[in-house]
Amino acid sequence: MIDVLLTDLLEQNAERYPDDTALVELNPVHDDAENLRWQEYELVETGHASHFRRELTWKEFDERANRFANLLLGKGVKKGDKVAILLMNCIDWLPIYFGTLKTGAVAVPLNFRYTSDEISYCVNLADASVLIFGREFVGRLGEVLGEIPKVGRFIFLGMDKPDYAESFEGVIDDYPPAAPNVAIAESDDAAIYYSSGTTGMPKAILHTQSSLFSAVVTEQAHHHQQKDDVFILIPPLYHTGAKMHWFGSLMSGSRAVILKGTDPKWVIETAASERATIVWLLVPWAQDILDAIEDGRIDLAEYDLGAWRLMHIGAQPVPPSLIKRWKKHFPAHDYDTNYGLSESIGPGSVHLGIENIHKVGAIGKAGHGWQTRIVGEGGAEVERGKVGELTVKGPGVMKEYYKDPEATAATLKDGWLYTGDMAMEDEDGFIYLVDRKKDVIITGGENIYPVQIEDFLRGYDKIKDAAVIGIEDHRLGEIAAAIIELKDGAVASEGDINAFAEGLPRYKRPRRIIFDEVPRNPTGKIEKPKLRKKYNADDLVARETEQE
To answer: What is the DSSP string of 69-110?
Structure first.
């Protein structure tokens, strides 16, 4: 039996469709001009926007991946080595990723929102020996260079290279465009993605080559990509979500547009000008588009959106009211949502299906090639209609948490991945999320981990205790709210807490400050279900009062 790899699909497309466009990058004209290589971008004017555009054909994509693979091999990278990727979305991101896979090395994408401490932690945890990064990260890396001694080579993508790094731009074309001769098997390690629960720093999730390839099969089975489809790719490529949805385009040899902007007009203009057929959105972006349509900032009559066939959405629970609004303005669109985790190679382990829009609110049924069970504390399946923990089993389940056998054993049991999400199954077999066993807050598709914020807030000398919970939000799905219990006799205002929280990265700062007692159970654990019930209920009453 011959192993089939993700990189094989890229090589097949390069052979079958060498001159067809594979990737497009679009940058708004207000983007950082110094970060663009002007000679490679074309300034495009449309009736509604101006942007810089760059393309790669399938042949160019494959050759660029091969050049990067040969660069790595020439620098001494060996099969099984770890190559960390710290880049904003750009047209070179995927060739760099595929080039890493072609060497047999393990690709380690890093969240571009990571602080310097998180970067050093994740690079060290993965044992990365090479780090490729962009100019946006020079300052953060500069703070921790002495703390990541295993990194022997830094490769810089962009202009104004720091002294400690080698240039990607200056040397990539010096390496041959032919594929390297490295024997790779489906069972080989391929990629490490990062996730985290509520207990602190991220965990390293190790996937094999076969796991990556399984995501291609699942995605194409769900969304039926054909050669003439055009996929608009907006979410970050470091995450399993965006990339694994794009894998359907890889399977069909169709075009994808990497859009560097989320402004509602920018998204609609791109969908029109690029003749998009599939757009994957996060909840806040969809809300922004609908708000712009309904307040008159976007007139849909001005755009030709006739090619757009599918809007799918994920990364967080989707309000049914949002889809009702969407179908009002886009009645011809198919709609779909997916559920997944980085531990299950991203979206697709549970899948609603475009034929099941009547079940909006559910996350769906087991995805293509997957099985699901909802279990109680002892691991036995609960009755239909009862709440339990959602578990999934399929070809994309992670190999392990890298260097963390205890966490692996707690999460993987007899091939089943215990998701930590509480769910129930209705009479038709559709699964609904009820609550998260883990306390991760999902705001605008990004995970926020309460323990990190709580630990930081407790460093304020007037705070006795702090709890961070998710509160429902119209636009972002959830926002982080901090319940603050002050020390006896201490006085602090909301402004004081917000000023102290400026020491956190912007996306981790609480959006609401609430002064109250922090309840703890007899074992000392914060009783967050009580807080979520109390404050989400209070918010609901307030919203209903405003509507009256």
So the answer is: HHHHHHTT--TT-EEEEE--S-TTHHHHHHHHHHTTPEEEE-
Side-chain half-sphere exposure of 493, counting CA atoms within 13 A: 3
pLDDT of residue 257: 97
Half-sphere exposure of 51 (CA within 13 A, CB side): 23
Considering just the CA atoms, what is the radius of gyration of the chain in Å?
23
- Give the span between the Cα atoms of 257 and 21, in whole angstroms: 10
Q: Please, which residues bridge with residue 84 across strands?
A: 108, 131
- Residue written as token pair 């202009």: 159
Angle at alpha carbon of residue 292, lines to 286 and 295, rounded to 5°: 135
Taking 70 as the pLDDT cut, the residues of the chain under it are 1-2, 29-51, 196-200, 315-317, 435-438, 521-525, 537-548
Closest CA to 106 of 133, 77, 148, 147: 77
One-letter amino acid at 261 equals G
Q: How far is CA 310 from the centre of its chain?
A: 19
State residue 1's pLDDT score: 45
Q: Are 124 and 171 a contacting pair, CB within 8 Å?
A: no
For the chain, the 3-state helix, strand and coil shares in percent, each to the nearest 5, are 35, 30, 35
User: What integer pLDDT is reported at residue 542 of this predicted model?
Assistant: 46
Q: Which helix (H) or strand (E) holds 312?
A: strand 310-313
Q: What secondary structure letter does DSSP report for 202? A: P
Domains, the chain, ordered by start: 6-313 (3.40.50.12780), 441-547 (3.30.300.30)
Distances (CA, A) of 84 to 105, 321, 520: 10, 40, 40
Alpha-helical runs (H) found in 460-527: 494-501
How many whole angstroms separate alpha carbon 88 and alpha carbon 135?
9
Q: What is the DSSP letter of 481?
A: E
Q: CA 98, CA 107: separation in Å to the nearest integer?
A: 9
**Burial, 185: exposed, middle or buried (Cβ in 10 Å; 0-12, 13-18, 19+)?**
exposed
**Alpha carbon 31 to chain centroid, angstroms:** 22
Q: How far out from the chain centre does Cα 1 lie? A: 33
**Parallel, antiparallel, or unpaired: how do β-strands 203-208 and 230-233 relate?**
unpaired
- pTM: predicted TM-score of the whole model, two decimal places: 0.85
C-alpha 328/C-alpha 335 separation (Å) is 12
Query: Distance (Å, rounded) from C-alpha 227 to C-alpha 238?
Result: 25
Instruction: Give the pLDDT confidence score for residue 347 in this predicted structure.
Output: 87
pLDDT given at position 197 = 44
How far is Cα 70 from Cα 102, in angstroms, rounded to an integer?
9
What does the pLDDT read at residue 521? 65
Which element (helix H / strand E) includes 274? none
Q: Which residues pair with 338 in a beta bridge?
A: 351
